[in-house]
Write a structure and sequence with these properties.
Number of strands: 0
Structural class: mainly alpha
Distance between the termini: 35 Å
Radius of gyration: 21 Å
Helix content: 55-70%
Oligomer: single chain
Largest sheet: none
Strand content: under 5%
Number of helices: 5
Order of helices and strands: HHHHH
Length: 107
């Protein structure tokens, strides 16, 4: 629950005081396509559950490991077969900001 409270506090501070009030990010998930990153994403938090000392949580973690591994393999295959979207030229032209337009344009 502590991690959940920390997440809510992070969002609250961002909404009230802006990004300058936030602590620096300490851990990033690499955007590199690798099987290791797929496993890391799917099994995030599993080590905490296995180290909890609760036998029931450990049993659930072990049973859930098989379908989670399958999800990691499927995620990795999806990443390998994905490509960057390419918009048609007419869509790019229609969505391009007009000269001098600043409202609604992300900075």
């Amino acid at each position: 629950m502590n991690e959940l409270y920390e997440d809510f506090e992070y969002y609250r501070r961002f909404m009230e005081k802006g990004p300058a009030s936030l602590p620096p990010v300490e851990e990033f998930l690499s955007t590199e396509i690798s099987f290791r990153n797929s496993l890391k994403l799917q099994f995030d938090g599993m080590s905490d559950m296995l180290r909890s000392g609760n036998v029931f949580l450990q049993l659930v973690g072990i049973v859930a490991a098989i379908p989670t591994f399958i999800l990691a393999v499927a995620y990795h295959l999806a990443q390998l077969t994905c490509r960057e979207p390419v918009w048609p030229e007419d869509v790019e032209r229609a969505c391009a900001p007009m000269l001098g337009q600043t409202e609604g344009v992300a900075s």
